[in-house]
From TrEMBL:
Protein name in UniProt: TonB-dependent receptor
Organism: Snuella lapsa
Ranges of residues in domain Protein FecR C-terminal: 15-74
Record flagged with keyword Flavoprotein: no
UniProt domain TonB-dependent receptor plug: residue ranges: 133-207
């Protein structure tokens, strides 16, 4: 009788002697364990699932038995006792896992309401063949992008600039490549991504919607890892290189192939991004054409780890994210050929240094200094009107952070710290005909102190994190207190009740001056709050009030988890004040109106997730919300629907994961976003469109079906490969994601529809060493 056929269903559920587990694994993976009998005596473990790789199985056994499993080659595994380290500072026990493999493998939900994504152990999601960090987040309930981009992620009604995006602790101002269709962060050197929709830690500030915390590996593992891969959009490479027993270099780079080869995927991406821009709106009647467009993107990330001693560690971080577009516009005017080059550059550079000191087994400090710089630069030539427009938006952000962590035992901890931030934002507009130049720069200094305590009861039934953050904005002499709460209570063994709450604020935001800014591709520019009560004129330009944005959020949820069945429901209410009309992207009667106000969103997120034998995972998620603006000077002071008000959103999906083959398919549906239609009795001769009540109509419902599959195999004993294929919008459904209206030369109203991605195939090939 094959030992693999021993009642595995029984021994998977309860711990067995380690020797029994080892015999099963030897048969399953055709390996041989080498050990001293005394090392495994009295050790017990649970049998890992068959779907896991050998490396993952060894990691699981290591955590369960406190033994070291070293894979010497493809055949032999040595088992040794782990020598106790002198520093035992650990926080894991305060982060109790509610559910592993949340939706798919590599996604975990914790008892503080956060969700963690591990790209290295990521399974598969519909439409994705690679673990795109920001695309994966959109699979979570309550997270959606109304225009299918990673540069416009709406979490519980918030705009994208209201999310705090951190890369290894450094704030980022650019999140996407291809102007929003692809995440700007390599998943292959990302250790984990923590997502907080509410109940955020007090150490995080300057964002009212959510926190997306991208973390790179921070511990030396003395193992060389590398990989290269490509798909129909880009090629990439990464490596983790041990340089010495105390140092390690992590490196990743990616570059598009779009300027070298044209693919069906690129054609769909190009059509989607540039459909409503200067690049696609050339005046053909005047023989003006856009041609020879050259578009590419790249990113480079480097992290250097140096363990000075067992107590002292230092880390260096460098990141460069770049998108570049050039295109030639030519025309024949008065029998003379004219040709000029327009361009757009978007770049985010960041550099930082982190010092970690373990003062004792219970006390540690982390200090970080970083500088991040964002630059959006466009030069746009209008040949017909002999005009050249230069626009630039630049952000400089420098910060110093100190975090103190005290944990006397595994169930109690205290965190505190201080953060100083200097942010400078400049905006430039330069026109040659007629001559006009406007350059405005604002600088703000912010100080913040915070403290919070965490408590985990015996048997992990109660988890409480209570804290607060005090911000001081020196420019306005303003203090802002921000309490934070995260509480969860397990009852009846399989149920958990949680309450999350937070006050937050932010001083940076994005606005739209005109929809054709920056060639109509990147319309949003970063600005600082000015806390003005009325408009002023600086350098010939009107400066409108931009308040400090403030939010309050409270949510309550209940979760049931048993036998790989998760049923979860969470209700929330969030109130936001201090937004401006220019930050919301209006394209109706309020497009050129400047007003300040807020919005209130109430909703519920529901999830049903069932897993079968760690191989099949299915889920149904549904979100209902009501999101309304309130601007006292607009709509007679009455509320009206938010531009991101998606009342109903539903996802139905499933994945299959085995040792070598993964498959996923899913359906995404949501009600259409609000829109404003012209009234039928509009007067055609007044050079103005007369609109109905703001956002009183809705676009057609959105529906998309995706699928994806990957297959892994061994090239040699040390080289593994993966091939993948995906189809986005497999039904090729025409989804309208935005509609607006404008007058033509005959004063007739034209309707402009922006479409989502059509059927978009992609294939990939990846090799790991």
């Amino acid at each position: 009788m094959n030992i693999e056929s021993i009642n595995t269903q029984t021994i998977q559920k309860e711990k067995q002697p380690l020797i029994t587990i080892l015999k099963v694994l030897e048969s399953r993976y055709n390996i041989k364990f080498s050990y001293v009998d005394a090392a495994i005596k009295d050790k017990k473990a649970t049998l890992p699932a068959e779907s896991l790789t050998l490396e993952t199985v060894l990691d699981v056994l290591k955590s369960e038995t406190n033994l070291d499993f070293q894979l010497l080659d493809k055949r032999f595994v040595a088992i040794k006792k782990i020598k106790p380290a002198p520093i035992t500072f650990k926080l894991q026990e305060l982060e109790e896992v509610i559910v592993n493999n949340y939706l798919t493998t590599g996604i975990t939900k914790f008892n503080d309401g956060s969700v963690m994504i591990k790209p290295e152990g990521f399974g598969i999601l519909p439409g994705l063949i690679e673990p795109d960090v920001l695309q994966t987040i959109q699979a979570l309930p309550g997270v959606i992008s109304t225009d299918e981009t990673v540069s416009n992620i709406n979490i519980r009604g918030g705009t994208h600039d209201q999310n705090l995006l951190l890369w290894d602790g450094i704030k980022m101002y650019q999140s996407g490549h291809f102007f929003g269709l692809i995440s700007a962060f390599s998943p292959y050197t990302t250790k984990r991504v923590n997502v907080f929709k509410n109940g955020t830690s007090a150490k995080h500030g300057d964002a009212i919607s959510s926190v997306i915390d991208i973390q790179l590996p921070n511990v030396l593992d003395h193992k060389f890892k590398a990989g290269i891969g490509f798909n129909l959009i880009n090629a990439d490479a990464y490596a983790k290189i041990p340089l010495s027993p105390k140092t390690e270099l992590q490196f990743s780079t990616r570059r598009s192939v779009t300027d070298l080869i044209l693919t069906p995927t690129y054609d769909q991406y190009f059509k989607r991004i540039f459909q409503d821009s200067d690049l696609s709106n050339s005046n053909q009647d005047l023989n003006t054409i856009s041609k020879n467009e050259q578009f590419y993107f790249y990113d480079i990330a480097v992290k250097f780890l140096y363990d000075i001693s067992k107590r002292d560690k230092i880390r260096f971080h460098v990141l460069n994210v770049n998108n570049s577009l050039n295109y030639l516009e030519q025309s024949t005017i008065n029998d003379r050929d004219e040709a000029l080059n327009s361009k757009l550059l978007q770049e985010n550079r960041a550099v930082g240094i982190t010092y970690i000191r373990d003062w004792s087994s219970t006390l540690s400090t982390t200090s970080q200094i970083y500088v991040t710089n964002y630059d959006l630069d466009a030069t746009n030539f209008d040949i017909i009107n002999s005009q050249r427009l230069i626009q630039e938006n630049e952000v400089y952000d420098g910060s110093i952070k100190l975090d103190v962590n005290y944990q006397p035992n595994s169930r109690f901890k205290i965190d505190g710290g201080y953060q100083f931030t200097e942010v400078g934002i400049s905006n430039l507009e330069d026109v040659n005909n007629p001559p006009f130049r406007s350059y405005i720069k604002e600088v703000m200094l912010n100080h913040a102190v915070y403290a919070e305590t965490g408590f985990l009861s015996h048997h992990a039934k109660t988890n409480l994190r209570l804290g607060g953050r005090l911000n001081y904005i020196s420019k306005f002499n303003m203090f802002l207190a921000e309490p934070r709460l995260s509480f969860s209570q397990r009852f009846l063994n399989n149920f958990r009740f949680e309450i999350l709450g937070e006050f937050k604020s932010q001083t940076t935001s994005q606005i739209i001056d005109l929809q054709n800014d920056f060639l109509g591709i990147e319309k949003r520019r970063w600005v600082l709050s000015n806390n003005k009560s009325e408009a002023t004129i600086i350098n010939g330009k009107v400066i409108h009030p931009i308040p400090v944005i403030k939010s309050k959020q409270l949510s309550a949820g209940i979760h049931y988890n048993k036998n790989k069945l998760l049923i979860s429901a969470e209700a929330y209410i969030k109130k936001v004040n201090g937004i401006t009309t220019r930050s919301q992207g209006f394209q109706n009667q309020y497009q050129f109106t400047n007003a300040t106000g807020g919005y209130t969103i109430k909703g519920i997120d529901f999830l049903l997730n069932k897993q079968f034998n760690n191989i099949v995972s299915t889920w149904l998620s549904y979100s209902f919300s009501s999101n309304n603006y309130i601007f006292e000077s607009l709509n007679d002071g009455h509320t009206f629907p938010n531009n991101t008000d998606i009342t109903h959103a539903l996802t139905l999906a499933g994945t299959y994961t085995s040792n070598t083959f993964k498959f996923a398919t899913g359906l995404n549906w949501h009600s259409g976003k609000p829109t404003t239609k012209p009234v039928l009795e509009d007067t055609p001769d007044d050079n103005e469109i007369t609109y109905a009540a703001p956002n009183s109509s809705n676009l057609s419902d959105y529906l998309r079906v995706d699928c994806s599959a990957t297959y892994s195999f061994n090239v040699t004993d040390t080289v593994k490969a993966t091939v993948g294929a995906s189809v986005w919008n497999i039904l090729n459904r025409k989804n309208i994601i935005n509609t607006y209206y404008r007058l033509d030369d005959n004063n007739e109203v034209n309707q402009i529809d922006n479409e989502s991605l059509g059927i978009t195939p992609n294939v990939s090939f990846r090799v790991r060493f």
